[in-house]
């Protein structure tokens, strides 16, 4: 028994050793300015980032991240790191986003690149490997999950709703070697499935048989008109008839006004257009289903998940109202490490809510104190107006 325990412990140790954190960044100081590169792509006015923990936080130093600082700007900033491939291993992409400005329209996503990225020329059309994260604009509040596959970008076919409040939230994408994936927000799974099923990477496995055609005698009508049903003889009644109670006005002049006609009213005996009743169709065969055949253009790909080279992360986005803070970047093949980072970040969210609540309460108290003073000022102005009002003088009789 003891040997089994030791073998299991050894297995866990080997597994831990084999796991790797490829890149992690939490922006403890200003060194990011020498490691991240602004794009200089022509034709756009790019905004600048600054290091900030925002207006409310749990820890003023530990919660610092890259914050957008200019309204109505494109942003294009990237960081390269040691290249890696996720062949045969899970890929975890994780980062936090805090829209403390209560964003109305703007991106909060990241783009993942290979080493061919020209950082000085990064722009919206720069080829990327993965695009992942929240995007908000008006009623649209979604999480993008876009993969590049054979030179084309493929969007997820599912709708994943992102968080739309003012606090820090952690976004995690897990891609596994069995071609499955998971999307988590704040360490809670919000979507999962198979890559092949939820993206259009490959042609469909089956297609409609081009040789098959619906038989000419195939009847898809569930009901038909009763051939035995006939229209009643008294059915035909006019929809409108002259008002029997109407009388010609006394001042009506036939020569001037023309021949008088009584106004029309709805006929209470009108039954509408007649139609025979419906009965079950004895020849009904149900909807015709087009037969399918194997798609000759379909070929399975067990390596859809694989990224041959991941080398850079970029913030390439547009924001109407600035103030978003990006932080806690993590690229790893260790799902448990990512979960641990996520659990630790929950304290940040709790601290932010506590500080924001205190700020809101202080603001409410301030408004309460200012409101009576404003009311008193208004009363004083009314009294002064009454005192200053001129008194009318009357001549004595």
TrEMBL record:
One of its GO terms (molecular function) is unfolded protein binding. It comes from the Eukaryota. Keywords: Calcium, Chaperone, Disulfide bond, Endoplasmic reticulum, Lectin, Metal-binding, Repeat, Signal, Zinc. Molecular calcium-binding chaperone promoting folding, oligomeric assembly and quality control in the ER via the calreticulin/calnexin cycle. This lectin may interact transiently with almost all of the monoglucosylated glycoproteins that are synthesized in the ER. This is Calreticulin. GO terms for biological process: ERAD pathway; protein folding. Residues 373-397 have a biased composition (Acidic residues). It comes from Operophtera brumata. Residues 206-250, 346-372 have a biased composition (Basic and acidic residues). Residues 1-19 form the signal peptide. The lineage of its organism: Eukaryota, Metazoa, Ecdysozoa, Arthropoda, Hexapoda. It holds the Pfam family Calreticulin.
